[in-house]
Amino acid sequence: MAKLSSVNKNERRKKLVKQYAPKYAKLKATANDKTLDEMERLIARLKMAELPRNANPTRIRNRCEITGRPRAYYRKFRLARVMLRDLANKGLIPGVTKSSW
């Protein structure tokens, strides 16, 4: 199990990203728009810098849904390798079987 504080911190980040997503997307589109004046793009970048640091989507860490483990994460199952193997061996993940040849 991961530290509960780390898991909670990541949940707070997810909440902030969701809250600021429309504003962040609008500012990012403005900052990357080559047709606009350089000054407008600079202002958009400065406004992006004023947003909370945790409002940036890249600060979210993928974690296992069960254990909170941050490493060896499989996106398709939203589980870490340890739990994926455990649940697959028990037959709790549909369509996943132990390979044999």
From TrEMBL:
Pfam families: Ribosomal_S14
Molecular-function GO term, any one: structural constituent of ribosome
GO biological process, one term: translation
InterPro entries (alphabetical): Ribosomal_uS14, Ribosomal_uS14_bac/plastid
UniProt KW keywords: Ribonucleoprotein, Ribosomal protein, RNA-binding, rRNA-binding
GO annotation, cellular component aspect: cytoplasm; small ribosomal subunit
SUPFAM superfamilies: Glucocorticoid receptor-like (DNA-binding domain)
Subunit structure: Part of the 30S ribosomal subunit. Contacts proteins S3 and S10.
NCBIfam families: PRK08881.1
Protein name (Swiss-Prot/TrEMBL): Small ribosomal subunit protein uS14
Organism: Sphingomonas changbaiensis NBRC 104936
